[in-house]
Amino acid sequence: MMILALMMVLPVSAATSPQNVETSATIASGTGSIPVVLCKWEADTTTSLEDGDTAHKIAGSQFLPPVEYQGTKTIQYFAVVWDDEDNGNVNVVSWDVNHPINAWGDGSFKYQVMGEKVTDKAEAVALFQDAINAGLVTVAEGYDANTILTEYLEKGTAAVWVGTADLDYCQPAGDYTVEANAIDFNNNWALSLVNTFLYVPVAAYELDFDAVSYGNVNINTHKWIAGNTVFNAGDGRPTIRNIGNTALQVTVMQDDMGLGSSLNGWNVEWDARLGNDDANSVVYKPNEEITLPNALPLCNTEELDFSIKIFKGTTGGKTGAMTIGAIVSPENTA
């Protein structure tokens, strides 16, 4: 009797769970001449090309934030590129953008913007001339703007490239570093050209209230009105949110609500605080502008609390006016 032994042979790669497999590739080294980034600049979509310096008194680009909750600021990134073999028709043009280094930004990489060639020569020339007239252009060492215009752009031997990307409303203010890069069809990398643009520091905020009612108040009694962190207009709970591109500090000023003064001084005083920590509370008198000590960071929402203490006054309703403002804070933490 013959006994047959059956055996299943599994492939050597068989497994019951995912496995990592090494991959590799080598980008071919370049031949021929390397491309050149002749110049670069940034612009916004306004007619002045930079809404932070519409008179163009400062070299380079200056942009204002949208000062709108969840708003965006559109930035256009430009470069003029030439290559000996391909003129301006290179393979890739891109811009690497880094955050500012300051109280609000850590200098980290933000994003890479990919470019497209401006194919109409007249449009390319006009874009370049407008940017030169506005003082926005950074020119590579060894070149000048007139040569770039007459010997490259007008002759069509170089091209303008453009990429577009947004900055969020609460991206940190300061000088953003922009590095323009180009790669030709022979895999040659240009020497990068670097400049900066300024995202102008602006302290901006929104309130969900337009009145503070202290209700019934007893003489010589300290009464607080508490806010909350829910931005909800009409809920009677004061809230502030930061819609600018810096940390901010709140300023407050109040008239005397008709309570006047006596020989001992004003007949009323107030407290205000951002958040609920008593250490951040500031006492103030009528017509005295005070600045709350703690900062409201970028993108944050916080409660505002107010108190009143009346030392002397007749019974009945009292009304007045409070002015709330904000200043740029050098700190980015509450």
- Principal-axis shape equals elongated
- Please estimate the helix content: under 10%
Any idea what the radius of gyration is?
31 Å
Q: Roughly what is the average pLDDT, rounded to an integer?
A: 92
Class of secondary structure makeup: mainly beta
Number of helical regions: 2
Strand percentage, roughly?
25-35%
What are the low-pLDDT stretches, counting only 5+ consecutive residues below 50? 1-13
SSE run = EEEEEEHEHEEEEEEEEEEEEEE
Major β-sheet annotation: 6 strands, antiparallel
How many E-type strands?
21
Distance between the termini: 89 Å
Explain the overall architecture.
By secondary structure, the protein is mainly β. It is 7% helix and 35% strand. Strands 11, 12, 13, 17, 18 and 20 form a six-stranded antiparallel beta sheet that branches. It has a five-stranded antiparallel beta sheet with strand order 6-8-3-1-7. Strands 2-10-9-4-5 form a five-stranded mixed beta sheet, with no helix packed on it. Strand 15 and strand 16 (265-266) form a beta hairpin.
